[in-house]
Structure formats: structure tokens, C-alpha cells
Amino acid sequence: MSTELLRVDLAQQVLELVRVATGGTAQAEVTVQWQALALTRFANSYIHQNVADTTTRVRLRLHVDGRTAAGSTTLTDPASLRGLVDRTVAAARLCPPDRSWPGLAPQAGPVTAGTVDEAIVAATPDDRAALVRAFVAAAGGLVTAGNCRTRHTTVTFANSAGQLIEGAGTDASLDGIARTPTSDGVARRAAGQLSDLDGGLLGARAAAKARAGADPVELPPGRYEVVLEPTAVHDVLRCLAVHGFNGKAVGDRRSFAAIGEAQLDPSVTLVDDPVSPGAIGIPFDVEGTPKRRIEMVSAGVTAAVAHDRRTAAQAGTSSTGHASPGEGSGPVPANLRLLPSDPAGPSGVDAPPSEVDGPAADSSVAAMVAGVGRGVLVTDHWYTRVLDPRTLVMTGLTRNGVWLIEDGRIVRPVRNLRFTQSYPRALEPGAVLGIGTHAVPLPATYEDSSFVAPALRLASWNFTGGASG
Amino acid sequence: MTHFDAATAAVQAALDAGARYADARVMHRRYESMSARNGEIEGLDQDESAGIGVRALVGSGWGFFAVPDLGDAAARAAGRRATAIAAASATVAGPAADLVPVPVESASWSSECLVDPLSVALSDKGDLLVSATGEAHGEGADVAEGLYQIWDTHKWFVSSEGHRIDQHLRECGGGISATVVGDGETQRRSYPSYRGQYGTRGWELVDELDLGAHAARIAHEARELLSAPLCPPGNTTLILGSEQMALQIHESVGHAIELDRILGWEAAYAGTSWLDLAQLGRLRYGSELMNIVIDPSVPGGLGSFGYDDEGSPAAARYAVQNGQWVGVLAGRDSAATAGLDYAGSVRSDGWARLPMVRMTNVGLEPGPHTLEEIIASTDDGVYMDNNRSWSIDDKRLNFQFGCEIGWEVKGGKLGRMLRNPTYTGIGPLFWRSMDMLSSEIVPWGTPNCGKGQPGQIGHTGHPAAPARFTDVRVGVRA
């Protein structure tokens, strides 16, 4: 029996066990996720951690007698599946009534199957080591560190309303730094195909940035015009997604997002796109709702936020396919893209530039720098945290390379700076002075997500401290 | 076939495939969490997870492989896969890897637990959260939330050196929070902290918290914060409550003394450390009042265990003694690389993840004062407590932390409530300015410490007490 049939069989076994246990009175949904994850880490220019695991997880959520509970297990033998069902049914019956249960997702039409790269499926530890070796060699003797990841995921969803869908996805990434005694430079890339990762190109780029950032000087805190490279814009997108375009946060009035209002600069269009060719992820959510392309911000106007079935019902709309296990953090657009100023194609995704000289990530960034009278070029953000979710005031630090810009030229590297800045304010109408032309897929730091970002030139960014305080 | 048999089979298969050292952990965990919101249950999740993770060393290269299958064939295959991965590591090789010796033991250990948290009726646990969040909502919170979490973990560890150790850990905790929405901003108060208090204890920990008794207070304080004056910017004397001190220890000491960071092994992600091994035993980290102990043997601490995930027995050790940096959190390979002779701080968050250097219980020894005495002896300053935001640089040096609530301190007394209190500083300069420390230690537990790739969520303990710091920059805002 193929692994796909096994997963369908597992899902249907669990639904049948629920039917028997509840006399057919329960609404139930089952997700069977199988994932092969491998990650090769390197530091001090050698591989020091190298891991892989293959995991199947069965997740059940059911609603019976007006009450809801969820459970999951990594054990798929018949006794363990029965245990999962028995525990979850018992838990539901002991829970208080769930008055906002939104019901099950209806049967959907054809669903995109997802994108699978056979090279990622077949990737070996030696394949990952080869990419690492190329990165290390291209750094030209600088100390390097980072990781190479491959991941193959398949998901089967079934519910007692007759929905049965399957999807699969692969992704790979290479993310590394090169180091001098006084600076780090970074280069990273996520890809749906293993062949899109070029260890030599990324290693050389990281090394070029590290060398250009050596011996930085302290810059006084204050408001500066900035050029944020794609690696830093990735953090901006992530924070907007998690705290802003999150239907639960909006319902709680803990988000800045207000549909129909011109909240961002007219040059800004944000699209959540989990289904275009090359997109990373599974094309439906854990409630079985198919995902689709959604414009969250259209030319600066907030147009939509992410919903699962519960938040959608509360908001009087329909799910956008953004349910996640646990529900606690709310629905988050996990494939957010800031459209570049000159999109390469309908997906707005570009091949990474191949130029590697100097501190700027690419010629698009260099062109933006040329227009800055006095400002700061920021490579990356680090450890950003919310001070107030409603205004989305964040504090965090720069990382992996910062430079002072004067009269359109990069004049010297500066030490890392702390910032305290409202992200929506930084993008408000009139504040965006330019958007880059290269939108690069970048690996997620935390969540199971994929953000695609070009560089951004912003009129003002509030740096509130230097490295020394 | 027992779980020890599966682990032994995996280790033997790794050795047969060419590994010069191997170990295996079979783990079985049950997890339960319930959340409530405004007097209604929001979610109930129960998870069961079991599998085996195998670590193999070939030359100087490590490999790790894990599967959720406890059968003999799967265990042996996992051992072989771990060795093959280690062989690939050795193609981009570093310096020779060694392991500092640890006692080879056959042992069994269980954490203390008076009330098994999984045996407490779900209805009772639900009633607790429903009641507390309902009261907070009724008392003015726009969003009142409550949460508890329970982990019940069995581990069986076998190494090629002869270790054979099983452990049973029961951990739990919970808390409540009240959020109010004003014109353009939100305010939040929590009890006892945002995600709650946690320990390697039974449900008695949650009972002792008495969540319901604090529901109305946090709702009222959150509402009051909306109209409180902003924490004024400037440099002043800062008094921190014990919960914020736990965060301060975690971020600016605990992570900084992780040996893998110091050695550069986390350089690309979690970061490095400002600490230089050449200064171990000589560097002044903080004032004479600063005594930080690494102690996984603390009864009930969230970072407590009998043995770490390399088989090292729990042992107490100073990290900072009388203000001087004297110890690190280490594993067997990192200690050998650094030329140290102790390990004992390596853990994984589950069978599917590689054990790595993690905090255990890292906390302060008691000081000579009380919070009351600290406030009474402060003419002009700010008192803050309960963490709201935390950010620190990749060397664990430059931090900016925000608290839920602050108060003016004038003439030795608490004055006006202050909203959006933040403070910032440089770790060693900040700790050197600590001039008063309370004896009122609370063993705070942090259940959400992220580290590693793939990401792992660690459980750490931080005994902490209120303390006073001088000339601290406060009131940083956008």
C-alpha cells in the first residue's frame, strides 16, 4: 500500500472510530501529517549538528453534544488511534459548551495538490553537506556558520462532512553567515527546488558583506532614513502577519488593521499567496479549507485579514484557509509577499541576483542607496518583540551588517543599533520612498511560513540606542 | 520488547555501522493544555508523542535520526541512519571531537508530585479557568485569558558507554491575564506572569497560585493603566520585581553562559556570547551581591531533572560567585572542546530533537534585604514588574525590556502607577550596578525558551528575588 493510501486509511480509521464512539453524533475532522525533515548545521566552518527525523502525526478535533476538544498523537497503531479517540471524546464531554463552534468545512472543489521537488524528496546528507561545503569554500577563508534544510511534507485531511483532500509540499533553504573578527555578513534563500540553492553564490555574498562591514563605528541614535534589505523586510512582513493581519487580533481590537482604510503607502501591496507555482506549503489548512491568493493590502488600502472558521463566523465572513493547530495565536497569513516595484512575473518572485560585491545585497538595493542623502543601510533584524500590539510598536536590533549612507554612497560600516519603531507608522502614506525590484523567498525563522520580500526605502526609522547602550 | 531494549538495539546498530560513540533516548510524553477566554473554554488539546532519537559520532562528525516507532527494526534502522548522517558530517569536518567523562550509571529517577495533574478532572480544571477569566472579564477586562499546561514525560536513555537511565518528569503550571483596549493602545496585567508559573511539580502548584483571588485585581490594574502617566524617560534608580528579575537572569545571564554560544556553535542563529573563555574565573560580571547558581537538583524547579539527556547527574555549580564569572552551562563535547571538566546541561525538547546545551535552573541566591526595605531606602526611582516584552542582542549584551506595570518611588514610598515602563542597558554594566537584593526568592519557571534548528522549546527555572539597580535608562519609546 502506498504511503498516500496509508494516510487516507489512517484518517478514515479515526473518523470511523469517532462514529462508533459517539453513535455518529460527533462532527469530526482528522489531519494526518507526514514529514521528513533534515537539517545540517555548520559553525566555525564545519558541520557540528546534523539531524533528520521522519514523523507522522494524527490530529483529531471533534464537536459532540455542543462541546469541543482536540487531540493528537505520533503513534499510529490501532490501539493508539483508539486511545486518541477515546481521550478526545471523553475530554469533549467534560468540557463546558462551545457556543462559538463554527461547524465543519464543507466539501471543497478541486484543491491544488501542492508542489513537490523530487530532488528535495531524495536529498541525502551528502547533498546537504555539498551545499555547505560550497558555502564555506566561497567565503574565502572567513569563518562561516549556518544551516541547510530540506523538508518534504504530505497532509491528508478528512472530516465527517465528507471532505477528503490531500496535499504535499517540499522546501529547502540555505542560510549562512561569514564572519570577520568585527563583523558578520549574511546570505539566505528559501526554495521550492533544491537546484535553486547555490552554496557558492550565497557564501560569496555573505563574505562580501562581512568584509565590507569590518571595523564598524558607533552611530548616534536618532531617526534616520533607512534602506532595509530583503532579510530585514522579512521581519517586517512577519510582524505585520502575526500581529496585524490576524483575524483574531483584529476581532479583539489588538491589531492596527482596519479594512477599507488607507493605512499604508500607496506603493505597498501585500499578497498572501500559498498557491502560486513555487509557493511553499500545503494548499489547505487544518480545518480543510483550501487556501487561495488574497490581497491583504491593495495599493496601501487594507483589504483583508486572515480568518479561520471561528474568527470568520465572529466577523461575519468566510474562512480564508488560515486555521492552525491550537487556535490560540489566531489565523496568520503565512505566505505574505510584498510586491516588488517591478515584478518579475505574476507571482512577484525573482531569481536572486548573482552579483556579490560590496555591502549591498544586490543592484536593486544599490540603486535605492544612491537616492539617499543621509541614512542607514540595514541588512537584518534580530529579536524583534512587540511593545504594544495595537500600534505594533516593536523593539529589536540590527544584525549582520549596517552601514551609514551619505550623498548616495555607503561611507562606513556602523555597529548594531537598537530600534523602537511602529511598523505601520514606518509604512504609512508618504513614508515609503522606494521598493526594490528583486523579491527573494527567505527561510522562516520561527513559524512554518514563507515570506517573500524586496528591499524597502523608508523615510524614517527610530533608532533608540547603540551597541553600547 | 522494553523501551530499554529498543534504545539498546539502536545504539548497537549505530556502533555496528561504524560509530565510535552512540546514545539513544526513547521518550513518551503526554501533554495537555486548556485555555479560556472571557469565562468560556477556548481550547482543549491533548497530545501523545513517543519515539526514539539516536545520536552517533563518526570521527569528529555527529549525526542524529529520530522516528516515532519503538519497534526493534525501526530502532536499528534509526541507529544506522544516525551513523550515515554522522559520516556525511565528517566530510566537512572540524577539530577532533571528544567527550568529557561522566559516571556510567544505571538509575531511575522521578520528580516529586503530590497531585498528578493529568488525574485532576478536566471539569475541575476547566471550572478554574472559566471562573477566573469570567471574573476578570466582568471586572472590566476586554479580553481575559487563562491557560494551564501539563507535561508528563518518561525517558529511557542508553549509551554505548553503558548508561541505562529512566526518568519520569511531571511538569505543570498556568496563569491568567487581563487586556484592556484604549484609544490607540492596549494594556495588560497578568498573574502570576503572562504565561503563568510553572514547575516540575504536580497540580498542587496551580492550586497554590489561587488564580481566582487575583482576577479582579489584574482587571482593575489593566484598566487603571490606560489613564496612568507614561513612565518618564531618563536615567534613574530601578527596582525590579522577582518575575521580571527571572527574565533578566534568563536573557542576560542564562543564555550568555551557554558554552555552545561561547564557542560560536550558535553564531548564525541564536547568536554568540559577549563572554570570553579566557576570562572565566577572572571577569567581574556583576556586583558582590550577584551569586548565580546552575542547579538542576532544585526540587520543583522547571529546569529540574535527575540526569540530563547525556546521562550526566544533576549537580549544582556556581555560574557567578560574589559577582565573578566562574561557570558555564556545558555538554560533554562542548566542555571537552573548551578544556573544562564538567557537563550536565544538555537536553532536548522531545525524542525527535537533538539534545543541546540548555539552561536548567539558573537563578540567584538570596540577598540580605526585603522588597520593603529596598523601596524604603530609595529616594527617587521606578519600580517595575511582570514582563511584557523582551529583546536582547545576539551577544546577550544590549537589552531592552518592557514591563506590564510600574510605580514611581519617591521618598521611600510607592507613588503613582506608570504605564509602558521600559528599561535598557548593557548586561555587565547593569549587573554591576545592583546595590540591593531581596531574600524573597521565587523559583520562576519559563516554559517557552526557544533555541536550536530545528527549533526546540526548553523548560527553564529561575529562582529570583526583587533587586535594585542604579543609573538605569528607563522610559524608551517609539
From TrEMBL, chain A:
<feature type="region of interest" description="Disordered">
    <location>
        <begin position="310"/>
        <end position="360"/>
    </location>
</feature>
<dbReference type="Pfam" id="PF19289">
    <property type="entry name" value="PmbA_TldD_3rd"/>
</dbReference>
<dbReference type="InterPro" id="IPR045569">
    <property type="entry name" value="Metalloprtase-TldD/E_C"/>
</dbReference>
<dbReference type="InterPro" id="IPR035068">
    <property type="entry name" value="TldD/PmbA_N"/>
</dbReference>
<feature type="domain" description="Metalloprotease TldD/E C-terminal">
    <location>
        <begin position="221"/>
        <end position="465"/>
    </location>
</feature>
<dbReference type="InterPro" id="IPR036059">
    <property type="entry name" value="TldD/PmbA_sf"/>
</dbReference>
<protein>
    <submittedName>
        <fullName>Metallopeptidase TldD-related protein</fullName>
    </submittedName>
</protein>
UniProtKB/TrEMBL annotation, chain B:
<feature type="domain" description="Metalloprotease TldD/E C-terminal">
    <location>
        <begin position="234"/>
        <end position="448"/>
    </location>
</feature>
<feature type="domain" description="Metalloprotease TldD/E central">
    <location>
        <begin position="116"/>
        <end position="220"/>
    </location>
</feature>
<dbReference type="Pfam" id="PF19290">
    <property type="entry name" value="PmbA_TldD_2nd"/>
</dbReference>
<dbReference type="InterPro" id="IPR051463">
    <property type="entry name" value="Peptidase_U62_metallo"/>
</dbReference>
<protein>
    <submittedName>
        <fullName>TldD/PmbA family protein</fullName>
    </submittedName>
</protein>
<comment type="similarity">
    <text>Belongs to the peptidase U62 family.</text>
</comment>
<keyword id="KW-0645">Protease</keyword>
<dbReference type="InterPro" id="IPR045569">
    <property type="entry name" value="Metalloprtase-TldD/E_C"/>
</dbReference>
<dbReference type="InterPro" id="IPR002510">
    <property type="entry name" value="Metalloprtase-TldD/E_N"/>
</dbReference>
<feature type="domain" description="Metalloprotease TldD/E N-terminal">
    <location>
        <begin position="22"/>
        <end position="86"/>
    </location>
</feature>
<keyword id="KW-0482">Metalloprotease</keyword>
<dbReference type="InterPro" id="IPR036059">
    <property type="entry name" value="TldD/PmbA_sf"/>
</dbReference>
<dbReference type="InterPro" id="IPR035068">
    <property type="entry name" value="TldD/PmbA_N"/>
</dbReference>
<dbReference type="Pfam" id="PF01523">
    <property type="entry name" value="PmbA_TldD_1st"/>
</dbReference>
<dbReference type="Pfam" id="PF19289">
    <property type="entry name" value="PmbA_TldD_3rd"/>
</dbReference>
<dbReference type="InterPro" id="IPR045570">
    <property type="entry name" value="Metalloprtase-TldD/E_cen_dom"/>
</dbReference>
<keyword id="KW-0378">Hydrolase</keyword>
